Automatic annotation (TrEMBL):
It comes from Ataeniobius toweri. The lineage of its organism: Eukaryota, Metazoa, Chordata, Craniata, Vertebrata. SMART domains: DALR_1. Residues 69-173 form the DALR anticodon binding domain. Coiled coil: none annotated. Signal peptide: none annotated. This is DALR anticodon-binding domain-containing protein 3.
Length: 182
């Protein structure tokens, strides 16, 4: 069912080009990643419920949040790839070291939102999501909260997508969010 949904979504975006082994392989990988995201989005002490309803398109909630995260990951990859090509052509400056960041370049509210809600707290989230707990008998148990990371990624994707759709990210001048934050 998920594979059918992935193929349908790809056909809506790319039309009749969705044919052949290459596309089959891409859809297979995307389907696998989506199902993994669904599984990792569930608290490990809760039962896993897979929504196998045929209705509905790509959503940022529930089982299709992984598709939205992957879409925005691909969008970021394209953005950074374009940025790197622009740096090579001399259109954009190199990303400065952390000590040389100029936060006064952040003008948009969305840039501050991304900085304070995602970039700064990211390492703390990773620290909190995987903590080793001492166990009686000398062993250790690791409590990995993958659902927190998935929730973070969906939320980041929503806010980044909103920002991306409002602001011309790369053009003649560099987006301050890319230069300052990333």
């Amino acid at each position: 069912l998920r594979k059918g949904q992935m193929k349908e979504a790809s056909e809506m975006k790319y039309g009749d080009k969705i044919e052949g082994q290459t596309w089959d392989d891409i859809i297979k990988v995307m389907t696998s990643a989506t199902v993994r995201f669904e599984l990792l989005s569930t608290v490990h002490t809760s039962p896993v419920t897979l929504d196998v309803q045929r209705e509905g398109g790509v959503s940022t909630k529930g089982p299709r949040g992984g598709v939205f995260v992957m879409y925005n990951c691909a969008r970021l990859h394209t953005l950074f790839d374009s940025y790197e090509r622009g740096v090579e052509k001399g259109l954009y400056p190199e990303i400065p070291d952390g000590s040389q960041l100029d936060f006064s370049a952040l003008k948009e509210e969305g840039e501050w939102l991304l900085l304070f809600n995602y970039i700064i707290p990211f390492s703390e989230l990773l620290d909190q999501s995987g903590q080793a707990l001492d166990r009686e008998g000398g062993g250790a148990r690791v409590n990995i909260k993958t659902e927190q990371i998935c929730k973070f990624l969906v939320s980041l994707s929503k806010d980044f997508s909103s920002y991306y759709n409002r602001v011309h990210v790369l053009g003649v001048r560099t987006c301050s969010c890319v230069c300052v934050c990333f």
